[in-house]
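S1.2 Input.
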Amino acid sequence: MQDHSSAQLPELPGDRTASAFAYTAAAAGVAGVATLAAMYAIEVPKDGPYIFGTTNDAIGGAFNLLVIPVILQVHRRLPAGSGNDTLKWVVVAASVAGSASSFLLVFRVLEFVPSTIASVSAMTVQALWFFLAHRQLLKRHNFPRSFGRLGKFIGAALLLGLPLTGLGYVLPGPDALRWTVTGIGVALGATGWVLWPYWYFRAGRLLSHAQATTTAGSAAPQAG
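S1.3 Output.
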């Protein structure tokens, strides 16, 4: 039986362009994780000056734009249908809105709270795409299994983690219960968020078809 855990994506026009966006999005995602961690470790205890925070907002705005070509290219592997078409345009619109909210916050046109709501909403819609799209893609015999499972896990972790985190803040009852719910939500959401750049790195690798080219090259007979 053929093992599809490291299978390649069937090549489509535009894959290599989307691969470049995927690698760039992966780098932006890592930078976003690093700057957010630096903000909470250095700036939040001192109440400023939030240079890392502003940088994180700008990176988040760029990230939401960079992911669009990647999402669209992977989405082309889904079966045609009105539901998938709607999902595609919803995630694109949410990504653009999330990007705009981040840049508006950087330029102080939008306040922190509405910008955060828009950004979290965009993340939630992207997570929904990750879960629904990869659940369908895993049914295809030629779709890389580990890549599909990674995408599905990221979507599920964020879709569960974000509302659990919010629930923990408003849940009535003992503090221990509230902190437990919040902790589970934060752990799930943070895990999915940290893994997000890795998915884009994997997408860049698969869309570049570099592994297939290397494999074909290594299998070719050498001239004597």
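S1.4 Remarks. The two ends are 34 Å apart (CA to CA).
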